[in-house]
Amino acid sequence: MFEAITRTAKQDLEDSLRALYPAFLEYPFPSSLDASPLRDAEKIPAALKSAPLREIGTAELGQYAASAITTVGSADDFKHFLPRILHCAVLSPSAYGFEPPIIASKLLLCDWQQWPIAEQTAVANLFYSAWAYKRLQDPDLDASAWDWIVAMAKLDLQF
């Protein structure tokens, strides 16, 4: 029985991840990124162009993900990379820039409650399905369920 529940939760998570990319497809790769003088405004885009969006690694995306909105780029820039940032958060939730509560804080800075419904739904579904799947994992191997529920609370998502 537990295996069936886990399989269903994993499928829901995979479906939510797949739905994220088309929901944010209208936001193109930024032609330039405004950045704090303390950030390397040329190095970050070079790393982001290293692979197609769905394949950018955490190492290449991490510096941008950690600095997005606060010291690098705009809300629309963030929206372009958000599907991959959330995807990486599921794969490596404790990696620099991919902590679910930090992503939730960036969403609040972007006024995500004012986004089109399709975008809000895609984001909310991902947070719900990530938490639902992660809570079924062995806490000694994957302790990130708590991070997802904290992020959901920050976003005022019911759980």
Task: Offer a few descriptive terms.
mainly alpha; 7 helices; 159 residues; single chain
Radius of gyration: 15 Å
Cα separation of the termini? 23 Å
Instruction: Say how many strands there are.
Output: 0
Instruction: Give start-end ranges of low-pLDDT stretches.
Output: none
Q: Give the mean pLDDT.
A: 90
Beta-strand portion reads under 5%
Number of helices: 7
SSE order, one letter for each helix or strand: HHHHHHH
Category from helices, strands and their pairing: mainly alpha
**What is the helix fraction of residues, given as a range?**
55-70%
How many domain modules?
Answer: 1
For the largest beta-sheet, the strand count, sense and barrel status come to: none
Question: What's the shape?
Answer: globular
Indicate the topology.
Blueprint: H1 2-23, H2 43-48, H3 58-67, H4 75-91, H5 100-109, H6 117-134, H7 145-154
Characterization of the model:
The chain has seven helices and no strands. By secondary structure, the protein is mainly alpha-helical. It has one domain. It is globular, with a radius of gyration of 15 Å.
Overview in brief:
The chain is mainly α.
